[in-house]
Design a protein that fits this description.
Blueprint: E1 21-24, E2 27-32, E3 35-40, E4 53-57, E5 64-67, E6 72-73, H1 75-83, E7 87-91, E8 98-100, H2 110-120, H3 122-137, H4 146-168, H5 187-210, H6 226-233, H7 236-252, H8 259-273, H9 276-287
Parallel strand pairs: 1-5, 2-6, 5-7
Antiparallel strand pairs: 2-3, 3-4, 7-8
Length: about 290
């Protein structure tokens, strides 16, 4: 139906993954002739696939649009998205920040209901936590309480920090973070703080895209974003720490950009290169499969 309209027959709009996430930046998202239109005037920069032009957006097949920096959205476009249950989130470059995600999800609630059932049952909740630790650390832990699991993780993480720092080639003196004085930490610890925020933003996108419940965490319990933190932690070893230490090495090597910018850029590039958000979405679905009894 849309072939030929607004140049869709020649458009090459890249889908981030098979889950129907669409990344758009530096343009205007509007409603035109009964469908969504995205007009980009800036030339594509490094790492971006969308060239200047006007593109029709087949929003009926997209579950969520991620709108990056330099973009605007019209009231008519928001109305059209709401009518068809397509979510819209404002994100930073490469998804390293998540500013908002209006609740415009589809009518399906299966994942959230299965998550709630698992969370409400003490045995199932612990089983989910053990599975998360097994994914991260490559070992199925024996039946232990959550406090014991956290203790085991802490010991493993100290060694993980040391090994990755050694691989990257930076000096590591241990994880130290003063919430009252975040800038007082050494460069590697500052880089870890900024990279952690970026990975948490990516996890926020994945949780919003799957319409799961941010508050119902299995490892984390008190924060309002507990499940987001759970998902972010699954990628601490493979994404967050290596990206942070690479950024720290650049800063310690005399790079003129500040450590926050370096960590954000390095983490964003890693998220994009490794398709981290699609992997997060897959992990969420694996936690609560359709045949799960909760």
């Amino acid at each position: 139906m849309l072939i030929g309209r607004l140049g869709l027959d020649t458009a090459r709009i890249p889908h981030a993954d098979r889950h129907g996430l669409l990344w758009l930046s530096r343009g205007a998202l509007t409603a035109r002739d009964g469908t969504l239109s995205f007009e980009r005037k800036e030339a594509a920069s490094r790492g971006e696939a969308l060239e200047p032009g006007r593109y029709a957006i087949p929003f009926q097949t997209v579950s969520m649009i991620l709108l990056g920096p330099g973009s605007t959205v019209s009231h008519d476009a928001l109305r059209l998205l709401a009518r068809h249950g397509t979510a819209l989130a404002a994100v930073g470059v490469d998804g390293v920040r998540m500013y908002t995600a209006p609740p415009l999800m589809s009518g399906r609630s299966g994942l959230a209901r299965r998550q709630a059932r698992c969370w409400a049952d003490e045995i199932s909740r612990l089983d989910i936590a053990r599975r998360m630790y097994a994914w991260r650390l490559g070992e199925v832990f024996p039946h232990q309480g959550i406090a014991a699991l956290r203790g085991m993780e802490g010991a493993r993480m100290r060694e993980t920090y040391r090994l990755i720092a050694q691989q990257v080639g930076i000096e590591w003196r241990g994880r130290r973070y003063d919430r009252q004085r975040p800038g007082a930490a050494d460069v590697p610890n500052q880089a870890l703080n900024h990279a952690s925020s970026a990975v948490e933003a990516a996890a926020g996108v994945a949780v919003a895209a799957t319409a799961t419940i941010p508050q119902l965490g299995f490892v984390h319990e008190d924060p309002s974003q507990s499940f987001v933190l759970d998902i972010a932690d699954l990628f601490r070893d493979s994404v967050m720490i290596p990206a942070a230490f690479r950024a720290a090495k650049q800063a310690l090597g005399g790079h003129h950009a500040n450590i926050e910018r370096l960590a954000r850029k390095e983490t964003g590039a890693t998220l994009s290169r490794t398709n981290t958000i699609p992997k997060m979405i897959t992990r969420i679905k694996e936690l609560f499969p359709e045949d799960s009894k909760g």
